[in-house]
Specification:
By secondary structure, the chain is mainly β. 11% of the residues lie in helices and 48% in strands. The strands form four sheets. It has a 24-stranded antiparallel β-barrel. Strand 31 and strand 32 form a beta hairpin. The longest helix has 14 residues. The chain is globular, with a radius of gyration of 25 Å.
Length: 686
């Protein structure tokens, strides 16, 4: 309750005093990210549970510092993550034939750029850039911009871990059920950036007991852009590294296999500051990016504490052996607190890039070390894949363009000479057709803490696969994507006690006759070998078969109302299920208020037949939610733009499970059929 009162006071004191009942067009415009329009076609329409906060941070940066569409290279446009290869090729060809673009209207003459796509990219591009000024106190005063965000949420029914108990030694959550997160950003023309984030998860203590420093998690950085002619970027604090295709070193968001079927190539950001509240997937220390003509050199050093399960300690009580590394970031119970910061991981290395107009070659080498021994439980399937306490890793990555062909790849090796490599190519067959072929081969002996590449399983080892994707745009309205992935595991895997093989096929037909109507039909079939019995002494392997289908319709009835419907179905030789939902998004004409509403019904046999669907949320909290068992879910979210500086969000949601007497398990179990929750957020820009 004290947190709610503090939030209310902060809401009051931060409201812009110039608030007026008269709203002009600029005030009524929504200055937040329309994440669905930007990322859904290529990234978010997935059957996995992802946190998209890092992608939103990246898009927000481009929104504040748009890309010059007249000078951007193929790589620059690709990194933005909105254009596909056909659109990039068409834009570069248009620039080559007709010169620079001067207005938004000219984009309509570029092949593949319709009104809806132009509206989507408009916030992220400019046609000319102002001259870059040197960083100075005067520039900081004139162009410095601050952005403050605060979020509060909680479940409105008590979970088992929060229930009172008479047993003082019982395992339970030590803190309140509130989630509280703060985030502050300061930006000066992308020359000086400062970020601070803090988060308390439900169940964690706050300013008491073991958390006397306040929030259980803090994140921050100081980043300088082009401080000298030869230093492109300098970061102190938390940052992320992304090189090549992720075989040697990749931190941060990755969506596994390509979701649109024709973009297997990774879009590495090289070096970027990290200010998210997710408690893993980043480095902590310092990094610098040098630029010397055609060469770029990134150097980095990091010392980051890790959570782990302690097996043995020395005579002073310091951990010497851990059996697992925990990435949840939760410190809610005595057991979870015993795992906090039990290991220290050091990381040192560099990445060298040589760039020309149509070719890039990179080399990465890094050394990482744990200050404790890492000894997970040895099982038949993982005996070759446990990373060592320390190791040196080196690799080469490349990509280039030759006529209508784009090629890319990476090969890397660990200190035991085990290799992993990925090779791919994209052919622009016609201005409306693109073919992507990708081959990956990860040795069963390859072991790397920082490998995070495309794979069928979660680890980058013990896999060989061939992926083929074809995109065809039949007209301005009709397009289709065909995707196939053939994979095999030379050694045992978590789900099968034998080497296995499998394949996945996907077909999507997309129809968008105008910017107000959009629909697609998608079918997916996946088959692979798995264990068919839980008996540890009787191993039986069978082939699983899973069919999924989805029909999605979206209709913008006017400038103020959009409706969406989706029917998703899943059928396998083990379970079945379906999901049907209706979305309504409405923006009031005379007041800066928008409303998002969803009602969904679902019925699945079990968790294995769960169905994922993207769910609108408050800014920086988008996710793909899983629906399983039998029930319904609805949410309503209000977004109110109080002024040019202050925006408020309120979301209420409830999940009703009708075929269970309780929801969840363990300390997260809720008695009854309903799981209501509320979320509040404010954003103040000044």
């Amino acid at each position: 309750m004290r947190i709610v009162i503090c939030l209310s006071i902060l809401l009051y004191v931060t409201v812009d005093k110039s608030f007026s009942a008269t709203y002009d067009a600029l005030l009524m415009a929504d200055d937040t990210l329309n994440l669905e329009d930007v990322l859904l076609p290529n990234t978010m329409d997935t059957d996995e549970d992802y946190d998209y906060s890092e992608l939103i941070e990246q898009l927000e940066l481009y929104r504040n510092h748009p890309l010059n569409i007249n000078t951007a290279t193929y790589e620059d446009l690709d990194k933005l993550g909105i254009f596909n290869d056909l659109q990039i090729t068409a834009l570069l060809q248009y620039r080559k034939e007709y010169g620079s673009l001067n207005t938004v209207q000219e984009l309509y003459f570029v092949h593949g750029f319709d009104a809806s796509f132009i509206q989507t990219i408009s916030p992220y591009i400019v046609f000319a850039e102002p001259p870059q000024k040197p960083l100075s106190l005067r520039l900081i005063r004139q162009q410095g911009k601050s952005d403050y965000m605060q979020r509060y949420s909680r479940a409105l029914v008590a979970k088992q871990g929060f229930q009172p108990t008479e047993n003082p030694t019982a395992n339970r959550y030590l803190g309140s059920p509130d989630l509280l997160m703060l985030r502050y950003r300061f930006d000066v023309a992308n020359r000086l950036r400062i970020g601070i984030s803090a988060k308390k998860d439900p169940g964690e203590n706050f300013f008491k007991s073991n958390q006397k420093q306040g929030f259980p998690f803090y994140s921050g950085y100081l980043a300088l852009g082009q401080p000298t002619p030869h230093i492109k970027q300098l970061i102190v604090g938390n940052y992320q590294l992304q090189f090549g295709q992720g075989l040697c070193l990749w931190q941060g968001f990755t969506s596994g296999k390509s979701l649109d079927g024709v973009n297997f190539k990774r879009k590495a950001q090289t070096l970027k500051p990290y200010g998210s509240s997710t408690e893993y997937g980043y480095s902590q220390g310092g990094a610098i990016l040098w630029q010397m003509g055609s060469f770029e050199l990134a150097q980095f050093v990091s010392w980051k504490p890790l959570d782990g399960t302690v097996e043995t300690c020395d005579s002073l009580g310091h951990p010497t052996v851990i059996s697992s590394i925990v990435e949840t970031g939760y410190h809610r119970t005595t057991n979870e607190l015993s795992k906090k910061h039990t290991a220290l991981q050091s990381l040192y290395g560099m990445h060298l890039d040589f760039k020309q107009s149509t070719f890039r070659l990179g080399a990465t080498v890094h050394y990482n070390r744990l200050n404790v021994d890492y000894m997970p439980t040895i099982k038949p399937y993982n005996q070759f894949s446990i990373p060592p306490k320390s190791g040196v890793y080196a690799g080469f990555d490349f990509d280039g363009i030759w006529r209508s062909l784009r090629y890319y790849g990476e090969i890397t090796m660990d200190n035991n000479r085990a290799t992993a490599y990925q090779l791919g190519s994209k052919w622009i067959l016609t201005p409306t057709t693109m073919l992507n072929i990708d081959y990956r081969n990860y040795s069963m002996y390859y072991k790397n803490f920082f490998a995070n590449a495309i794979s069928e399983n979660s680890s980058v080892n013990n896999e060989k696969a061939l992926s083929i994707g074809l995109l065809c745009e039949f007209s301005q309205a009709w397009s289709s994507t065909i995707f196939s992935d053939f994979f095999q595991f030379p050694w045992l895997s978590y789900s099968a006690d034998a080497p296995l093989y499998g394949f996945e096929h996907r077909l999507r037909i997309h129809f968008k006759p105008n910017r107000r109507f959009n629909t697609y039909l998608q079918y997916q079939y996946k088959s692979k070998a798995i264990n068919t019995t839980d008996d540890p002494f009787l191993h039986s392997i069978g082939q699983s078969h899973k069919h999924t289908a989805r029909l999605h319709l979206e209709h913008t009835l006017s400038d103020y109302i959009t409706i969406k419907q989706r029917l998703s179905m899943v059928y396998s030789n083990r379970s079945t299920g379906f999901l049907l939902y209706q979305d309504v998004q409405y923006r009031f004409a005379q007041t800066p208020l928008s409303v998002s509403f969803r009602y969904a019904v679902f019925n699945t046999d079990d968790y294995d037949s769960r169905i994922y669907a993207f769910e609108s949320d408050v800014l920086y909290a988008y996710s793909s939610s899983a629906y399983y068992y039998k029930g319904s879910r609805f949410y309503v979210m209000l977004q109110y733009k109080c002024s040019r500086k202050l925006t408020l969000w309120l979301k209420y949601a409830n999940t009703n499970i009708t075929d269970r007497l309780s929801i969840g398990s363990g300390l997260d179990e809720i008695q009854g059929h309903d799981k209501p929750e509320i979320k509040l957020q404010l954003r103040w820009k000044f």
